[in-house]
């Protein structure tokens, strides 16, 4: 085990907090999967779901380990080509998306032969953030021209968002917000950001009007996420109220110390208790202290991301850490906010804690790239330290040689002076 830990490169703080979140997830998932066990098997045995979750986590850590060994600049080189592949996958998902336990049919595709379902928007967001970081790092030394940036940056961004929007408004809003944050950190001119935001609002308004006018043209979830926003802002009763009500009952039941591991009651009534609303189950079983512990782990992970971004030795590395790390934490905050009804139901999972295969693996892939950035920084720092040591050793060797040469020269001069009779005369 010690040898394995020594082989882990990169920021040890990120490794530690990710491992703690993953380990903590076992008990809530084991407990919250009971309703799925009754629906799927009829016997309530959740052991199979726990084993499945452990396998997903183990595969995820394998992904982190393999990806963090790769130089992160490789992803800069392939991001543009990967974006075209993502567009094809997103288009296929809109047309041929599959249903997952009654959930949205346009978010998921089923991988052939292995039968694993995959949410393409998670891959799309990761590729898009790397693509934006690549563009911003490329234009660092050149003044940004808005017209050229529209074609090189914003057209690919909006095309990607357009594929995701009909099926998943929350993910679209999250990705767009993170892109704006990324370009702001990358010193994209504020007046241009204002134009982009205004254009995005106009486009979204137009899209909603068209969707309401021609509902048959959008056989996806447009009506669902529009009604969710309407119900949330107007307090109208809706089908999501049932989930929110059960989540709030779970949170209220937990109080300070919780009911105890595995003793949740509302897990039997919440449809997405092991994924979208797992935070409510955590508070019910572990209380407010358990919820604050989870929140603290995410905030500490965010703190390590900030440190990793500041220490990165290239602009692309800084932007990659921000673009892949911050959305992870923001998604966690959105999930928690939904559980306490600060936001409408979004379908965002709690990273590294909620059950699920592809979402865990994509999160781990992003973490692998972030750790790869920190590993490179450590390697550069170690190279500088080694170079300083070599320079110091060389300087000591030179100083010693000079001292020896000086001593030898001084010895000869004293000996010659003693042997030369003229020196005695001159001294008199």
TrEMBL record:
Subcellular localization(s) per the UniProt record: Membrane
GO cellular component: cell division site; plasma membrane
UniProt topology in membrane: Multi-pass membrane protein
Primary location recorded for the protein, binned into one broad class: membrane
A GO molecular function held by the record: lipid-linked peptidoglycan transporter activity
Top-rank EC class of the record's enzyme: transferase
GO biological process, one term: peptidoglycan biosynthetic process
Keywords noted in UniProt: Cell cycle, Cell division, Cell shape, Glycosyltransferase, Membrane, Peptidoglycan synthesis, Transferase, Transmembrane, Transmembrane helix
Transmembrane segments annotated in the record for this chain: 14-38, 50-70, 82-101, 113-133, 153-185, 192-211, 277-303, 315-340, 352-374
Catalytic activity entry: [GlcNAc-(1->4)-Mur2Ac(oyl-L-Ala-gamma-D-Glu-L-Lys-D-Ala-D-Ala)](n)-di-trans,octa-cis-undecaprenyl diphosphate + beta-D-GlcNAc-(1->4)-Mur2Ac(oyl-L-Ala-gamma-D-Glu-L-Lys-D-Ala-D-Ala)-di-trans,octa-cis-undecaprenyl diphosphate = [GlcNAc-(1->4)-Mur2Ac(oyl-L-Ala-gamma-D-Glu-L-Lys-D-Ala-D-Ala)](n+1)-di-trans,octa-cis-undecaprenyl diphosphate + di-trans,octa-cis-undecaprenyl diphosphate + H(+)
InterPro entries given in the database record: FtsW/RodA (IPR001182)
PANTHER family, sorted: CELL CYCLE PROTEIN, PEPTIDOGLYCAN GLYCOSYLTRANSFERASE FTSW-RELATED
Family, per entry: Belongs to the SEDS family. FtsW subfamily.
Protein name as catalogued: Probable peptidoglycan glycosyltransferase FtsW
């Amino acid at each position: 085990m010690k040898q394995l830990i020594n082989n882990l490169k990169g920021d040890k703080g990120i490794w530690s907090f990710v491992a703690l979140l993953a380990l903590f997830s076992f008990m809530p998932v084991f407990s919250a999967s009971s309703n799925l066990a009754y629906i799927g098997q009829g016997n309530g045995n959740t052991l199979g779901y726990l084993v499945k979750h452990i396998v997903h986590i183990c595969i995820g850590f394998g992904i982190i380990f393999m990806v963090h060994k790769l130089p992160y600049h490789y992803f800069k080189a392939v991001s543009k080509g990967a974006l075209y592949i993502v567009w094809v996958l997103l288009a296929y998902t809109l047309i041929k998306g599959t249903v997952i336990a009654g959930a949205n049919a346009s978010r998921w595709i089923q991988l052939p032969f292995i039968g694993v379902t995959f949410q393409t928007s998670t891959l799309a967001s990761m590729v898009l953030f790397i693509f934006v970081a690549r563009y911003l790092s490329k234009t660092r030394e050149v003044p940004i021209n808005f017209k050229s940036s529209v074609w090189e940056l914003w057209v690919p961004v909006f095309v990607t968002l357009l594929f995701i929007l009909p099926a998943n408004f929350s993910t679209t809003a999250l990705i767009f917000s993170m892109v704006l944050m990324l370009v702001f950190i990358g010193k994209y001119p504020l007046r241009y950001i204002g134009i982009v935001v205004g254009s995005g609002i106009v486009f979204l308004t137009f899209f909603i009007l068209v969707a309401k006018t021609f509902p048959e043209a959008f056989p996806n979830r447009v009506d669902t996420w529009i009604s969710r926003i309407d119900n949330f802002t107007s307090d109208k009763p809706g089908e999501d109220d049932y989930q929110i009500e059960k989540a709030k009952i779970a949170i209220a039941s937990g109080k300070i110390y919780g009911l105890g591991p595995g003793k949740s009651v509302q897990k039997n009534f919440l449809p997405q208790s092991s994924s979208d609303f797992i935070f409510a189950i955590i508070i019910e079983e572990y209380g407010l202290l358990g919820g604050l512990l989870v929140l603290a782990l995410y905030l500490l992970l965010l703190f390590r991301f900030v440190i990793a971004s500041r220490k990165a030795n290239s602009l692309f590395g800084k932007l990659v850490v921000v673009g892949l790390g911050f959305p992870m934490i923001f998604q966690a905050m959105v999930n928690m906010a939904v559980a306490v009804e600060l936001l409408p139901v979004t379908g965002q999972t709690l990273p590294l804690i909620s059950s699920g295969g592809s979402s865990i693996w994509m999160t781990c892939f992003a973490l692998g790239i972030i750790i790869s950035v920190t590993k490179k920084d450590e390697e550069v720092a170690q190279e500088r330290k080694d170079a300083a040591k070599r320079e110091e050793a060389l300087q000591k060797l030179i100083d010693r040689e000079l001292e020896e040469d000086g001593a030898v020269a001084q010895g000869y001069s004293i000996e010659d002076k003693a042997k030369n009779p003229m020196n005695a005369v001159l001294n008199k």
